[in-house]
Amino acid sequence: MNKYEFTIRYNLHQLSAAIVSAPTSYLGRQAAVLIPIIEIDQQLQLILTQRPLHLRHHPGQISFPGGKAEPTDVNLIHTALREANEEIGLLADNVDVLGIFPAHKTFTGFEITPVVGLVKQPFELMIDPGEVADCFTVPLSFFIEKDNRHEVFHYRHGKRYRVHFMPFEDRFIWGVTAAIIDLLCRHVTHE
Question: What are the residue boundaries of the Nudix hydrolase domain, all occurrences included (predicted)?
Answer without folding.
Answer: 28-161
